[in-house]
Amino acid sequence: MTPSRMHSRLLSATRGFSLIELMVGIVISIICTLGMMAAFSAYESQKRTTTNGSDAQQNGSFSTFMLEREIRTAGSALVQGRNYGIWGCAIDAWSGGTKRLPLTAALAAPFDNWPLTTRAVPVLVAAGTGDKADVIGIVRGNPIARTFRTNMVSASGTTVTVDNTMAIFPGEYLLMSDKSGKCTFGLVSTVNGTSIGLDTAGSASDGFSAPAHYTASLSAYIFDMGVNPAVTLFSVNQTNNSLVGYDLLQRGAASGASIAPYPLADNVVQLKTLYGLAATPSDVTVDSWVKPTGTTWGIAALTPTPDTQDANNARSRIRAIRIAVVVRSRQQERAAPASAASSDVAYIGYTGSTTLTLFGDLDATLQYSVTTDPTYRYKVYDLVIPVRNNLITKFF
């Protein structure tokens, strides 16, 4: 091989890429990068949607579990008091030396549509107008033993004498009624024979004494509500989108102070309800549904002062509550563009509906239409919850 030919081969081997080859390589790299980024974008979008859906499902499941548990057990320890003045009585309650019930002023949102007087009824609903969430109120006890009414013999200050203290223990709450339409909560501090001492941390300063809390000429009865009775409200805080509860008894609050609502689940945006009604107070089968509104089923009609037989009959027909809980994804979705710039470009985006219809399987008069943000995904949980203690029609 001649030196000139060898030199030519060496130059050819070391000259590198040409400009055209380099540009072709860059174009191919850009195309591959764009393809990879499109795949990553599609994957992340699907991942975000799946994660948001999973979060919404967890929040919805937990919310409905909490509400179902409370509504199913509503009325425990009350049901056999129907013939002894406790059913539907206007509750008086104290904690920390402060009278808590009846309320002296409307509560803050979202419970501002709850009435000042709370009655001892398993479950009632205060309807929210328009897109405002409903408020569900439940009353129940949890005594260690089912003690059927105890006769109150006398009351002097914070000492109460009864005919039998079986299954009544310190730390439990009692509910006393005398068929006058009122009933009073008291917290047990001591039990000695047939004498019960009341603790002013959860009782009036004068206990159950007459005439402030009962009429001496009437027979008074005491029902054991257990250590953790519930007089609780549930609704949706639509400012921060959370399901919240509120303890009307305000246990643990200092004198003159109050305890704020407590969160139960986040990303809950709406709560709407229907009453399931029996034809008469003695029937147990639900044969119609109504909204908790109007001159018969609105909260004002069901909790009048003074109480009426019509209101009592209406309350006694409630056999179930149907609830719709609306939950929302945590993050906004990327909005879909109005039109694509090119038919060759695939846009990934989402635009939802601006309204949701709740209870869509029922007559239009029973449905709710709620406003939604189209940049979020929503899920509706719809379930029927029997009020089991309202199904009892045999009383002692």
TrEMBL record:
User: Which keywords appear in this protein's UniProt record, sorted alphabetically?
Assistant: Membrane, Transmembrane, Transmembrane helix
Q: Where are the transmembrane segments?
A: 20-43
Keyword Cell membrane in the entry? The reply is no
Indicate yes or no for the key word Transmembrane: yes
- Per the record, the domain of life is Bacteria
Give the Pfam families listed for this entry: N_methyl (PF07963), PilW (PF16074)
Query: Which InterPro entries does this chain map to?
Result: N_methyl_site (IPR012902), PilW (IPR032092)
- This one is known as PilW family protein
